[in-house]
Amino acid sequence: MMRQIVIAGGSNAGLSAARELRRAGFDGRVVLLDADAQSPYRRPEVSKGLLSGKLDEGRVAIEWPGNLEVERLMGHRLVRLDLGRRQVEAIRADGGDVQVPFDGLVIATGARARPVPFGPRLPGVHTLRSVEDARGLRKDLREARRVVIVGGGFIGLEVAAVAAELGQDVTVVEKDKVPLGSVLGASFGAYVTALHRSHGVRIVTGGSVAGLVPGPSGRVAGVRLVGGEPLAADVVLVAIGSLPGVDWLIDSGLDVTDGVRCDRTCAVAGADGVVAAGDVAAWWNPLYSRLMRVEHWTNAVEQGAYAARRLLGLHDPAGFVSAPYFWSDQYGARLQSIGSSLGHDAALTLESDGPKLVVAYARAGRLLSVAGIHASAAVMGHRSQVLSRISIEDLECAV
């Protein structure tokens, strides 16, 4: 019988799991541990409202519900999972050791920014994942004139838009032929590239970074490209993806190759009474019949709730079925996507009218996802078709 459940990770998936445990009637002890003393907060706003100054930290924070009766141990860095003793081990901010036993465990330790791989990290070089990261980057952006962003993914492009609107000289270095091309295809990538160039952002594609250039003071002064001239920079953001938060699980015996390996019900492989949710979970998504690890807000919230029900045996045995949804705001334009376009072999433009663009992605003739810009209603209107994986022919007839 479960009398004590530990939630490892206090961001959106952890909060959602705590809420669902109480909603489902669990009346035992719930203990939550998180290294970030500021969790939870609206993570999408880290590279949007918080960085631009349109929102302050108070408005980004999510107030923890006082009626959940959860013992929150914030500022506790997780260091080990001992499945034999069924306990989680952590280190407090003051250096003290903590061991917390569990009957059930929710792993929701999220992800961290991939570290800077270009030698020693110089002052003025940033990654972006947390509120603390945004605080430091925002300060440097206010004092900079030239900004170089390594990586043309969503985080990189959102920061490029913020820096351009602040009047900075901005360059984005993307290793592929077009930003977002591997995710949303050539036409969508070309649209987003044109949007940024229309706001004065320089996009360098097919570029590979050889290293960082230090200035006389030791602060970053530029980015050196392979076979090219250095790009002058006062501030550099390295936005080259993320890594799941599994460092504390390395010697646990769990499969953490790319996140915590789970079955379709978010149950962790090789561990009884342990589930995972959010950015750290690599689960078998029945909708796409493959392992997926999704780093989007809505997925964390929905999966956290499902994982809590799985722990209590109140889950849908069919599994956690997800058509991931995300959005990105750039220059006042909202880009949205429903589903996963990974592995698509066809991209069909459904609408292209002025600033509006809607594209459908398919594999082997079946719909995978739909993405759009200036097209909120159109994208969400295709949700049921994505969930039913209709044929691309039927989609064309329905448009």
Automatic annotation (TrEMBL):
GO cellular component: cytoplasm
Keyword Transmembrane helix annotated: no
GO molecular function: oxidoreductase activity, acting on NAD(P)H
Pfam family, one: Reductase_C
InterPro entries in the cross-refs: FAD-oxidoreductase/Apoptosis, FAD/NAD-bd_sf, FAD/NAD-binding_dom, FAD/NAD-linked_Rdtase_dimer_sf, Reductase_C
Cofactor(s), names only, from the UniProt record: FAD
Every Reductase C-terminal domain range: 325-393
Domain (FAD/NAD(P)-binding) ranges: 4-304
Keywords, sorted A to Z: FAD, Flavoprotein, Oxidoreductase
PANTHER family in UniProt: APOPTOSIS-INDUCING FACTOR 1, RIESKE DOMAIN-CONTAINING PROTEIN-RELATED
Name the UniProt record assigns to this protein: Ferredoxin reductase
Organism name: Frankia canadensis
